[in-house]
């Protein structure tokens, strides 16, 4: 995770992501603290080619001390509401193939696998399972 964070969260990368008009960030505030956040991508900001009537959840992160408080579900439902309001056909995401807890969470929320893609942590090849929920 440190290798991923070192690449994914550089000041330059964060600035680029925040400047993209096709990406949106949302924060869950718990007791005046950030308990979690979510990054959504639309159109050309999506990390895999998809139709324009789709929304990608690129990230949902909940801080460790806030696990079990339904923050992930709250963020996921918020993303689904955004996609429904835009009358999108589906919402999709990528999840590491060995993250069984997250896969179960998404399956329980109506997501189904539709493909995979490779990503690298340093020189180590990893696989994300692509999952989507029809709306």
Automatic annotation (TrEMBL):
- Keyword Oxidoreductase among UniProt keywords: no
Q: What GO MF annotations does this protein's record show? A: acyltransferase activity, transferring groups other than amino-acyl groups
Q: Does the keyword Iron-sulfur apply?
A: no
What are the N-acetyltransferase domain coordinates in residue numbering?
A: 1-135
Keywords (A to Z) from UniProt:
Acyltransferase, Transferase
Instruction: Enumerate the Gene3D superfamilies for this protein.
Output: 3.40.630.30
State the name under which the record lists this protein: Spermine/spermidine N-acetyltransferase
User: Which species is this UniProt entry from?
Assistant: Mucilaginibacter frigoritolerans
């Amino acid at each position: 995770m440190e290798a991923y964070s070192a690449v994914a969260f550089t000041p330059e990368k964060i600035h680029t992501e925040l400047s993209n008009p096709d990406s949106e960030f949302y924060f869950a505030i718990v007791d005046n603290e950030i308990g979690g956040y979510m990054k959504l991508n639309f159109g050309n900001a999506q990390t895999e080619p998809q139709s324009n009537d789709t929304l990608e959840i690129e990230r949902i992160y909940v801080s460790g001390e806030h696990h079990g408080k339904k923050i992930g579900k709250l963020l996921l439902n918020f993303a689904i509401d955004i996609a429904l309001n835009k009358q999108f056909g589906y919402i999709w995401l990528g999840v590491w193939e060995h993250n069984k807890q997250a896969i179960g969470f998404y399956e329980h929320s109506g997501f189904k696998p539709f493909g995979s893609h490779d990503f690298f942590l340093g020189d180590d090849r990893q696989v994300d399972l692509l999952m989507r929920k029809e709306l």
